[in-house]
Design a protein that fits this description.
The chain is mainly β. It has no helices and twelve strands.
Length: 159
């Protein structure tokens, strides 16, 4: 009988994207596909001091979990801010009540695991910058735009 695919979180080496702006220079190792995941996603993030994973945001229809593996992080959420440490787990439900931003506290690198359901299409809303991103399943069609409210009939010709 063959062994199941596995990944050791302690052996993963996150990669950094040089184009990430200051304040968001986190390393990431996405590993869901390596273990054969199709309905859930998971990534290990390495956060140097003062760096965040993503801007403050919430998502539809995905639920996300945050697990702190090492270090301390500051979690911003709709109710305010709170410090989380090694072993703490929180859940971000879909919609505005699940808004969050995760930032490394202190002088030590933090390592966190983010896992989520994988549903397509997905939408992320960034309330601080009034943006919306749409993820239809194909990165060629991904859209990020300013949020605007139009009348339903805007641009429609009279018949």
């Amino acid at each position: 009988m063959a062994d199941l695919p596995r990944v050791n979180l302690h052996a993963l080496v996150p990669t950094y994207d040089e184009s990430d702006p200051e304040g968001y220079r986190a390393g990431m190792a996405r590993f869901g596909p390596a273990i054969g995941a199709s309905q859930m996603g998971a990534s290990l993030y390495e956060l140097p001091p003062g760096q965040s994973i993503c801007p403050y945001h919430y998502e539809y229809p995905e639920e996300e979990w945050l697990v702190v593996l090492a270090g301390r992080v500051l979690l911003r959420h709709p109710g305010g801010e709170q410090e989380l440490g090694k072993g703490d787990v929180v859940c971000f439900p879909p919609g505005p009540e699940g808004a969050h931003k995760v930032t490394c506290l202190g002088e030590d690198v933090a390592r966190v695991l983010m896992s989520s359901t994988k549903q397509t299409p997905a939408i992320a809303v960034y309330p601080d910058s009034d943006k919306v991103s749409i993820f239809p399943g194909d990165d060629r069609d991904r859209l990020t735009m300013r949020r605007a409210t139009l009348d339903y009939w805007d641009g429609e010709a009279e018949t």
